[in-house]
Amino acid sequence: MSELEGKRVFVTGSGAGIGKAIAKLFIERGARVVVSDIDADAAKRAADEIGAAGVAN
Ligand SMILES: NC(=O)c1ccc[n+]([C@@H]2O[C@H](COP(=O)([O-])OP(=O)(O)OC[C@H]3O[C@@H](n4cnc5c(N)ncnc54)[C@H](O)[C@@H]3O)[C@@H](O)[C@H]2O)c1
Question: Which residues form a coiled coil (predicted)?
């Protein structure tokens, strides 16, 4: 079992770039992640792409 299993993670600025890459790594390692970005469309796209549990703006 992953050390991040059962953890909830909120990543700001994760609609693109470094934030999105960090969010994706957390998901791959077992965490449930909320993608947050000032750009709502980017946040939604990123969340769909990486399989995030939620989106916040
Ligand atoms: N990419 C690199 O190689 C690199 C290297 C060193 C430092 N940095 C720095 O790291 C930071 C992130 O880089 P990046 O390449 O991921 O940038 P990026 O511009 O690709 O992504 C940043 C994301 O943050 C979002 N954002 C901007 N302001 C926000 C706010 N107030 N609240 C929420 N979301 C916000 C943007 O909409 C965008 O989706 C920047 O400050 C950059 O200068 C980047």
Answer: none
